[in-house]
Amino acid sequence: MVWHLANVTQVISKMSCFKSCSEGKCATYMRIGCAVYLQKLSLLLSLSRAFLLAIDVGAKQGMSYLNDRLHFNANNDVHNFHMWVLPLFYRKTANIILTMISKALEVIEPL
């Protein structure tokens, strides 16, 4: 699926680096994109005093998920970031959800 998206991106953008993109190369591009996104989010959060975390837990096609959005003010602008959707392989207890969110936030801002 991701490989298909890379090839569609190549057709639309006409960038040769996406031509005949292998699944491994595509996964590397995705990892780099996620790292850049999380770094930008970390830098913006460092300019903010507080943030609001909006949490949504649900299920689609029999798979439970945790969807997080982050709202904060930095440089006199209000930011609304979709952080991630994490699969919930276990029961949806408050303790499990809090643990997942804590571990994920430590990626952005280590304690």
Automatic annotation (TrEMBL):
PANTHER family: PX DOMAIN-CONTAINING PROTEIN (PTHR37067). This is Uncharacterized protein.
